[in-house]
UniProtKB/TrEMBL annotation:
It is a multi-pass membrane protein. Pfam families: RDD. It comes from the Bacteria. This is RDD family protein.
Amino acid sequence: MVDRKDIGSWLSGPDTSNISKYPGERLGLPETGHGSMARAGRRILAICIDWALSYLIAAAFFHSDSLAILAVFAVEQMVLVGTLGYSIGHRVMGIQVTRLDGGPAGLLAGVVRAVLVCLVIPAVIADADHRGLHDRAMKTMLVRR
Protein backbone atom coordinates (compact mmCIF):
# COMPACT_ATOMS: atom_id res chain seq x y z
CA MET A 1 0.00 0.00 0.00
CA VAL A 2 1.17 3.52 -0.80
CA ASP A 3 1.48 5.88 2.13
CA ARG A 4 2.30 9.57 2.50
CA LYS A 5 6.05 8.86 2.80
CA ASP A 6 6.09 7.37 -0.73
CA ILE A 7 4.40 10.32 -2.43
CA GLY A 8 6.02 13.00 -0.29
CA SER A 9 9.23 12.93 -2.33
CA TRP A 10 7.60 14.14 -5.53
CA LEU A 11 5.24 16.53 -3.74
CA SER A 12 8.15 18.35 -2.15
CA GLY A 13 9.70 19.08 -5.56
CA PRO A 14 12.99 18.16 -7.18
CA ASP A 15 16.24 17.72 -5.31
CA THR A 16 17.99 21.11 -5.31
CA SER A 17 21.03 20.15 -3.26
CA ASN A 18 23.29 20.14 -6.37
CA ILE A 19 22.20 23.57 -7.67
CA SER A 20 24.69 26.34 -7.03
CA LYS A 21 23.64 29.54 -5.28
CA TYR A 22 25.43 31.88 -7.73
CA PRO A 23 27.27 31.63 -11.07
CA GLY A 24 30.82 30.39 -10.59
CA GLU A 25 30.27 28.66 -7.26
CA ARG A 26 30.86 25.23 -8.82
CA LEU A 27 34.12 26.57 -10.27
CA GLY A 28 35.32 27.79 -6.88
CA LEU A 29 34.94 31.49 -7.69
CA PRO A 30 33.71 34.19 -5.31
CA GLU A 31 30.15 35.47 -5.60
CA THR A 32 31.12 39.12 -6.20
CA GLY A 33 34.17 41.27 -6.76
CA HIS A 34 37.54 40.45 -8.29
CA GLY A 35 37.63 36.96 -9.79
CA SER A 36 33.86 36.42 -9.84
CA MET A 37 32.01 35.45 -13.01
CA ALA A 38 31.22 38.35 -15.33
CA ARG A 39 27.47 38.86 -15.50
CA ALA A 40 25.44 39.29 -18.68
CA GLY A 41 25.27 43.09 -18.51
CA ARG A 42 29.05 43.52 -18.59
CA ARG A 43 29.41 40.91 -21.30
CA ILE A 44 26.77 42.50 -23.54
CA LEU A 45 28.21 46.00 -23.12
CA ALA A 46 31.71 44.69 -23.86
CA ILE A 47 30.61 43.05 -27.11
CA CYS A 48 28.69 46.20 -28.10
CA ILE A 49 31.85 48.28 -27.56
CA ASP A 50 33.92 45.84 -29.62
CA TRP A 51 31.31 45.76 -32.38
CA ALA A 52 31.07 49.57 -32.48
CA LEU A 53 34.86 49.88 -32.76
CA SER A 54 34.88 47.26 -35.51
CA TYR A 55 32.16 49.19 -37.32
CA LEU A 56 34.15 52.45 -37.09
CA ILE A 57 37.30 50.79 -38.45
CA ALA A 58 35.36 49.12 -41.28
CA ALA A 59 33.63 52.41 -42.11
CA ALA A 60 36.98 54.20 -42.29
CA PHE A 61 38.79 51.63 -44.42
CA PHE A 62 36.24 49.30 -46.05
CA HIS A 63 33.15 51.50 -46.76
CA SER A 64 31.15 49.80 -43.97
CA ASP A 65 31.08 46.44 -45.73
CA SER A 66 29.30 43.97 -43.41
CA LEU A 67 31.86 41.21 -43.96
CA ALA A 68 34.64 43.68 -43.20
CA ILE A 69 32.96 44.59 -39.91
CA LEU A 70 32.77 40.91 -38.98
CA ALA A 71 36.39 40.33 -40.05
CA VAL A 72 37.69 43.29 -38.02
CA PHE A 73 35.71 42.08 -35.01
CA ALA A 74 37.03 38.52 -35.39
CA VAL A 75 40.65 39.65 -35.75
CA GLU A 76 40.33 41.91 -32.70
CA GLN A 77 38.94 39.03 -30.64
CA MET A 78 41.54 36.55 -31.88
CA VAL A 79 44.57 38.76 -31.34
CA LEU A 80 43.64 40.62 -28.16
CA VAL A 81 41.92 37.79 -26.28
CA GLY A 82 44.58 35.34 -27.47
CA THR A 83 47.51 37.50 -26.33
CA LEU A 84 46.22 39.76 -23.54
CA GLY A 85 43.17 37.86 -22.31
CA TYR A 86 40.76 40.68 -23.06
CA SER A 87 39.40 42.74 -25.94
CA ILE A 88 38.99 46.50 -25.82
CA GLY A 89 35.37 46.08 -24.70
CA HIS A 90 36.38 43.59 -22.03
CA ARG A 91 39.03 46.00 -20.75
CA VAL A 92 36.58 48.91 -20.58
CA MET A 93 34.03 46.78 -18.70
CA GLY A 94 36.64 45.32 -16.32
CA ILE A 95 36.41 41.67 -17.38
CA GLN A 96 38.97 39.15 -18.62
CA VAL A 97 39.09 35.71 -20.26
CA THR A 98 41.01 33.10 -18.27
CA ARG A 99 41.34 29.34 -18.31
CA LEU A 100 39.54 27.35 -15.64
CA ASP A 101 42.83 26.91 -13.78
CA GLY A 102 43.32 30.71 -13.70
CA GLY A 103 46.01 30.89 -16.39
CA PRO A 104 45.91 33.05 -19.52
CA ALA A 105 43.53 31.99 -22.29
CA GLY A 106 46.20 31.60 -25.00
CA LEU A 107 46.20 32.17 -28.74
CA LEU A 108 44.35 28.96 -29.67
CA ALA A 109 41.54 29.81 -27.25
CA GLY A 110 41.38 33.32 -28.70
CA VAL A 111 41.01 31.99 -32.23
CA VAL A 112 38.42 29.31 -31.43
CA ARG A 113 36.40 31.62 -29.16
CA ALA A 114 36.37 34.34 -31.84
CA VAL A 115 35.13 31.95 -34.53
CA LEU A 116 32.39 30.62 -32.26
CA VAL A 117 31.36 34.11 -31.10
CA CYS A 118 31.05 35.16 -34.76
CA LEU A 119 28.66 32.24 -35.26
CA VAL A 120 26.49 33.83 -32.49
CA ILE A 121 24.60 30.70 -31.34
CA PRO A 122 27.44 29.23 -29.21
CA ALA A 123 27.80 32.54 -27.39
CA VAL A 124 24.08 32.79 -26.61
CA ILE A 125 23.68 29.29 -25.15
CA ALA A 126 25.00 29.49 -21.60
CA ASP A 127 25.14 27.17 -18.60
CA ALA A 128 24.37 27.92 -14.95
CA ASP A 129 27.80 29.50 -14.55
CA HIS A 130 27.15 31.96 -17.42
CA ARG A 131 29.69 30.19 -19.64
CA GLY A 132 28.70 30.05 -23.29
CA LEU A 133 29.47 27.10 -25.52
CA HIS A 134 32.51 29.00 -26.83
CA ASP A 135 33.90 29.19 -23.27
CA ARG A 136 33.07 25.58 -22.51
CA ALA A 137 34.74 24.40 -25.72
CA MET A 138 38.03 26.06 -24.76
CA LYS A 139 37.75 25.54 -20.99
CA THR A 140 37.75 29.28 -20.39
CA MET A 141 35.62 31.70 -18.38
CA LEU A 142 35.00 35.43 -18.35
CA VAL A 143 35.72 36.86 -14.91
CA ARG A 144 35.73 40.32 -13.34
CA ARG A 145 39.14 41.96 -13.02
